[in-house]
Design goal:
Order of helices and strands: EHEHEHEHEHEHHHE
Number of helices: 8
Number of strands: 7
Distance between the termini: 48 Å
Strand content: 5-15%
Length: about 260
Amino acid sequence: MSLRLEGKVAFVTGAAQGIGRAIAEKMAREGASVVVADLLEGVGARAASQIAASGLSAMAVRTDITDEGSVRAAVEATLNRFGQLDILVNNAGTTFFHDATKMTSSEWDDALGVDLKGAWLCCKYALPQLELRKGVIVNIASVHATMTTYGMFPYAVAKSGLVGMTRSLALDWGRRGVRVVAVSPGWVGTPLVEDFLNRQEDPEAFRARVLGNQPLGRIAAPAEIANLVAFVASDEASYLTGTEIVIDGGLSSRFAE
Protein backbone atom coordinates (compact mmCIF):
# COMPACT_ATOMS: atom_id res chain seq x y z
CA MET A 1 0.00 0.00 0.00
CA SER A 2 1.42 3.39 -1.00
CA LEU A 3 1.60 6.12 1.61
CA ARG A 4 0.26 9.46 0.43
CA LEU A 5 3.01 11.50 2.17
CA GLU A 6 5.93 9.13 1.71
CA GLY A 7 9.24 10.98 1.31
CA LYS A 8 7.79 14.27 2.59
CA VAL A 9 8.90 16.34 5.57
CA ALA A 10 6.16 18.12 7.52
CA PHE A 11 6.67 20.96 10.01
CA VAL A 12 3.63 21.13 12.31
CA THR A 13 3.29 23.95 14.84
CA GLY A 14 1.45 23.41 18.10
CA ALA A 15 1.92 19.68 17.59
CA ALA A 16 2.45 18.68 21.20
CA GLN A 17 -1.25 18.11 21.82
CA GLY A 18 -4.75 18.51 20.43
CA ILE A 19 -5.33 18.97 16.71
CA GLY A 20 -1.61 19.50 16.05
CA ARG A 21 -0.69 16.23 17.74
CA ALA A 22 -3.31 14.38 15.70
CA ILE A 23 -2.01 15.98 12.48
CA ALA A 24 1.58 15.03 13.29
CA GLU A 25 0.59 11.43 14.05
CA LYS A 26 -1.53 11.11 10.91
CA MET A 27 1.17 12.55 8.66
CA ALA A 28 3.77 10.23 10.17
CA ARG A 29 1.49 7.24 9.53
CA GLU A 30 1.16 8.45 5.94
CA GLY A 31 4.93 8.26 5.52
CA ALA A 32 6.10 11.79 6.32
CA SER A 33 8.98 12.70 8.60
CA VAL A 34 7.35 15.02 11.12
CA VAL A 35 8.70 17.96 13.07
CA VAL A 36 6.77 18.57 16.29
CA ALA A 37 7.24 22.32 16.69
CA ASP A 38 5.85 23.55 19.99
CA LEU A 39 6.56 25.98 22.81
CA LEU A 40 5.84 23.19 25.30
CA GLU A 41 9.24 21.57 25.04
CA GLY A 42 8.68 18.59 27.33
CA VAL A 43 5.24 17.72 25.97
CA GLY A 44 6.50 18.14 22.42
CA ALA A 45 9.46 15.86 23.06
CA ARG A 46 7.15 13.18 24.46
CA ALA A 47 4.86 13.45 21.47
CA ALA A 48 7.76 13.04 19.04
CA SER A 49 9.17 10.13 21.06
CA GLN A 50 5.84 8.33 21.04
CA ILE A 51 5.51 8.77 17.28
CA ALA A 52 9.06 7.51 16.78
CA ALA A 53 8.41 4.57 19.11
CA SER A 54 5.87 3.33 16.58
CA GLY A 55 8.65 3.03 14.03
CA LEU A 56 7.83 6.34 12.38
CA SER A 57 10.01 9.40 11.80
CA ALA A 58 9.65 12.41 14.10
CA MET A 59 11.68 15.01 15.94
CA ALA A 60 10.73 17.77 18.38
CA VAL A 61 11.90 21.37 18.18
CA ARG A 62 11.01 23.93 20.81
CA THR A 63 9.46 26.76 18.82
CA ASP A 64 8.03 30.09 19.93
CA ILE A 65 6.13 31.12 16.81
CA THR A 66 5.91 34.73 17.99
CA ASP A 67 9.72 35.01 18.03
CA GLU A 68 11.38 35.34 14.63
CA GLY A 69 14.70 33.95 15.80
CA SER A 70 13.03 30.89 17.28
CA VAL A 71 11.13 30.19 14.05
CA ARG A 72 14.25 30.63 11.92
CA ALA A 73 16.21 28.26 14.18
CA ALA A 74 13.42 25.66 14.09
CA VAL A 75 13.34 25.64 10.29
CA GLU A 76 17.14 25.38 10.22
CA ALA A 77 17.00 22.44 12.64
CA THR A 78 14.49 20.75 10.32
CA LEU A 79 16.79 21.16 7.33
CA ASN A 80 19.81 19.97 9.31
CA ARG A 81 17.97 16.80 10.29
CA PHE A 82 15.98 15.98 7.17
CA GLY A 83 17.51 18.10 4.40
CA GLN A 84 14.20 19.34 3.03
CA LEU A 85 10.80 20.80 3.90
CA ASP A 86 7.65 19.89 1.98
CA ILE A 87 4.70 20.75 4.22
CA LEU A 88 4.05 23.52 6.72
CA VAL A 89 1.02 23.23 8.97
CA ASN A 90 0.31 26.46 10.85
CA ASN A 91 -1.74 25.00 13.66
CA ALA A 92 -0.40 26.72 16.80
CA GLY A 93 -2.75 29.24 18.35
CA THR A 94 -5.06 29.87 21.26
CA THR A 95 -8.38 31.54 22.00
CA PHE A 96 -8.60 35.09 23.29
CA PHE A 97 -11.67 36.79 24.78
CA HIS A 98 -11.54 40.57 25.12
CA ASP A 99 -13.73 43.65 25.11
CA ALA A 100 -12.49 45.81 22.23
CA THR A 101 -12.78 48.95 24.36
CA LYS A 102 -10.96 47.52 27.35
CA MET A 103 -8.18 45.36 25.98
CA THR A 104 -4.72 46.89 26.01
CA SER A 105 -2.37 47.32 23.09
CA SER A 106 -0.18 44.67 24.69
CA GLU A 107 -3.07 42.21 24.84
CA TRP A 108 -3.86 42.93 21.19
CA ASP A 109 -0.24 42.31 20.22
CA ASP A 110 -0.20 39.04 22.20
CA ALA A 111 -3.40 37.78 20.58
CA LEU A 112 -2.46 38.66 17.02
CA GLY A 113 1.11 37.51 17.64
CA VAL A 114 0.03 33.99 18.51
CA ASP A 115 -2.91 33.60 16.14
CA LEU A 116 -1.67 35.47 13.05
CA LYS A 117 1.88 36.83 13.17
CA GLY A 118 3.25 33.43 14.14
CA ALA A 119 1.80 31.84 11.01
CA TRP A 120 3.36 34.56 8.86
CA LEU A 121 6.79 34.06 10.47
CA CYS A 122 6.63 30.34 9.79
CA CYS A 123 5.64 31.04 6.18
CA LYS A 124 8.47 33.55 5.85
CA TYR A 125 11.14 30.96 6.62
CA ALA A 126 9.42 27.92 5.13
CA LEU A 127 8.43 29.34 1.74
CA PRO A 128 11.90 29.35 0.14
CA GLN A 129 12.23 25.67 1.01
CA LEU A 130 8.68 24.86 -0.04
CA GLU A 131 9.32 26.46 -3.41
CA LEU A 132 12.19 24.06 -3.98
CA ARG A 133 9.95 21.08 -3.22
CA LYS A 134 6.66 22.35 -4.75
CA GLY A 135 5.31 22.18 -1.24
CA VAL A 136 2.14 22.96 0.66
CA ILE A 137 1.04 25.26 3.48
CA VAL A 138 -2.04 24.32 5.48
CA ASN A 139 -3.31 27.08 7.77
CA ILE A 140 -5.59 25.90 10.57
CA ALA A 141 -8.12 28.70 10.85
CA SER A 142 -11.60 28.39 12.38
CA VAL A 143 -15.28 28.77 11.57
CA HIS A 144 -14.84 32.07 13.43
CA ALA A 145 -13.05 33.35 10.33
CA THR A 146 -16.38 33.71 8.52
CA MET A 147 -19.02 33.46 11.26
CA THR A 148 -18.66 34.07 14.95
CA THR A 149 -20.49 34.54 18.23
CA TYR A 150 -20.51 37.02 21.09
CA GLY A 151 -17.32 37.65 23.03
CA MET A 152 -14.84 36.21 20.53
CA PHE A 153 -12.83 39.38 19.95
CA PRO A 154 -10.09 39.41 18.69
CA TYR A 155 -9.91 35.67 17.97
CA ALA A 156 -12.28 36.04 15.02
CA VAL A 157 -10.18 38.93 13.73
CA ALA A 158 -7.01 36.83 13.73
CA LYS A 159 -8.63 33.81 12.10
CA SER A 160 -10.17 36.01 9.40
CA GLY A 161 -6.70 37.37 8.79
CA LEU A 162 -5.32 33.85 8.49
CA VAL A 163 -7.81 33.04 5.73
CA GLY A 164 -6.84 36.28 4.00
CA MET A 165 -3.19 35.31 4.29
CA THR A 166 -4.05 31.97 2.70
CA ARG A 167 -5.58 33.62 -0.36
CA SER A 168 -2.77 36.15 -0.73
CA LEU A 169 0.07 33.64 -0.46
CA ALA A 170 -1.71 31.22 -2.78
CA LEU A 171 -1.78 33.92 -5.45
CA ASP A 172 1.79 35.11 -4.91
CA TRP A 173 3.37 31.65 -4.74
CA GLY A 174 1.13 29.52 -6.95
CA ARG A 175 3.26 29.98 -10.07
CA ARG A 176 6.25 28.95 -8.01
CA GLY A 177 4.57 25.63 -7.29
CA VAL A 178 3.44 26.24 -3.70
CA ARG A 179 -0.14 25.51 -2.68
CA VAL A 180 -1.76 27.27 0.30
CA VAL A 181 -5.05 26.13 1.85
CA ALA A 182 -6.98 27.06 5.00
CA VAL A 183 -8.80 24.41 7.02
CA SER A 184 -11.44 25.84 9.37
CA PRO A 185 -12.70 23.50 12.10
CA GLY A 186 -15.73 24.01 14.29
CA TRP A 187 -15.91 22.48 17.76
CA VAL A 188 -13.16 19.89 18.31
CA GLY A 189 -12.55 17.83 21.44
CA THR A 190 -9.10 19.16 22.33
CA PRO A 191 -7.65 19.83 25.80
CA LEU A 192 -8.18 23.57 25.16
CA VAL A 193 -11.86 23.07 24.34
CA GLU A 194 -12.41 20.69 27.24
CA ASP A 195 -10.89 23.25 29.59
CA PHE A 196 -13.16 25.94 28.14
CA LEU A 197 -16.26 23.79 28.60
CA ASN A 198 -15.32 22.89 32.16
CA ARG A 199 -14.84 26.56 33.11
CA GLN A 200 -18.44 27.49 32.33
CA GLU A 201 -20.81 28.36 35.16
CA ASP A 202 -22.83 25.20 34.47
CA PRO A 203 -20.52 22.94 32.43
CA GLU A 204 -23.04 20.19 31.80
CA ALA A 205 -25.76 22.57 30.63
CA PHE A 206 -23.32 24.43 28.42
CA ARG A 207 -22.00 21.20 26.91
CA ALA A 208 -25.56 20.04 26.23
CA ARG A 209 -26.29 23.33 24.45
CA VAL A 210 -23.16 22.97 22.32
CA LEU A 211 -24.06 19.42 21.32
CA GLY A 212 -27.64 20.47 20.66
CA ASN A 213 -26.40 22.92 18.03
CA GLN A 214 -24.41 20.27 16.15
CA PRO A 215 -26.26 18.71 13.19
CA LEU A 216 -24.34 15.48 13.81
CA GLY A 217 -25.05 15.62 17.54
CA ARG A 218 -21.38 15.59 18.53
CA ILE A 219 -18.18 17.55 18.23
CA ALA A 220 -15.21 16.42 16.14
CA ALA A 221 -12.33 14.28 17.28
CA PRO A 222 -8.88 15.77 16.50
CA ALA A 223 -8.19 12.81 14.22
CA GLU A 224 -11.07 13.85 11.95
CA ILE A 225 -9.42 17.21 11.33
CA ALA A 226 -6.08 15.48 10.82
CA ASN A 227 -7.55 13.23 8.13
CA LEU A 228 -8.60 16.27 6.09
CA VAL A 229 -5.27 18.04 6.59
CA ALA A 230 -3.34 14.98 5.39
CA PHE A 231 -5.43 14.87 2.24
CA VAL A 232 -4.99 18.61 1.59
CA ALA A 233 -1.21 18.26 2.00
CA SER A 234 -1.01 15.27 -0.34
CA ASP A 235 -0.64 15.11 -4.11
CA GLU A 236 -4.24 13.93 -4.26
CA ALA A 237 -5.22 17.57 -3.66
CA SER A 238 -2.82 18.92 -6.28
CA TYR A 239 -5.29 21.42 -7.78
CA LEU A 240 -6.50 22.75 -4.42
CA THR A 241 -5.16 26.16 -3.40
CA GLY A 242 -6.24 29.60 -2.26
CA THR A 243 -9.40 28.38 -0.59
CA GLU A 244 -10.89 27.68 2.84
CA ILE A 245 -12.33 24.28 3.68
CA VAL A 246 -14.79 24.33 6.58
CA ILE A 247 -15.00 21.13 8.64
CA ASP A 248 -17.62 21.81 11.31
CA GLY A 249 -20.08 18.92 11.12
CA GLY A 250 -22.62 21.18 9.43
CA LEU A 251 -22.66 23.81 12.19
CA SER A 252 -22.34 26.74 9.81
CA SER A 253 -25.31 25.56 7.76
CA ARG A 254 -27.61 26.07 10.75
CA PHE A 255 -29.74 29.23 10.95
CA ALA A 256 -29.79 30.86 14.38
CA GLU A 257 -33.00 30.24 16.32
